[in-house]
Design goal:
By secondary structure, this protein is mostly helical. 78% of the residues lie in helices and 0% in strands. It has a domain of 89 residues. Helix 1 packs across helix 5.
């Protein structure tokens, strides 16, 4: 996987929200919870597996979903590892990897826009809060945890206002 869990976010949304297995609001809540926790974003699979209206659900559904999302990548790494050092120095392979890495930037932007921005930013106030939080992190270089907590508080207050 190039780009991490955010690249697969639109695919997960398409796979579980569109058929009605997980409501869109629950999907976004799971995404928010996964973002707030340390570790890979792929842990959202446990949430989705537990919440899904099909399959085993609960703890068993979470375990199945985690295995389903992590196992293919682990098997691919295990299979490619013996060849990786030789492959990554070859010109065409290196060029392909550079191109894939560049394309991931666009995929990440698309994942930010859909489903996150289109679902969570529904009013000008939402956009202002998101941009203010971004500026606090990127420009003012405030610590992440206080910005996340303040943004969550501001979002909760904005929702009841």
């Amino acid at each position: 996987m190039f780009g991490g869990g955010h690249v697969v976010l639109p695919l997960l949304q398409e796979a579980v929200v569109r058929p009605g297995w997980v409501p869109a609001g629950d999907f976004l809540a799971g995404y928010g919870a996964a973002q707030a926790l340390p570790g890979p974003l792929f842990t959202i699979a446990a949430f989705l597996g537990a919440k899904a209206s099909v399959g085993p659900g609960g703890a068993l559904g979470a375990a199945v979903a985690l295995a389903a999302i992590f196992l293919p990548g682990l098997l691919l790494v295990y299979g490619a590892l013996p060849f990786w050092d030789r492959l990554r120095v070859k010109g065409p392979a290196r060029g392909a990897l550079d191109g894939i890495n560049a394309a991931v930037v666009g995929i990440l932007a698309a994942a930010l826009y859909e489903p996150v921005w289109t679902s969570a930013v529904t009013r000008p106030l939402d956009a202002a809060l998101a941009l203010l939080a971004f500026a606090a992190l990127a420009v003012a270089r405030f610590p992440v945890l206080p910005v996340v907590l303040l943004a969550a508080l501001a979002g909760a207050l904005a929702a009841i206002a």
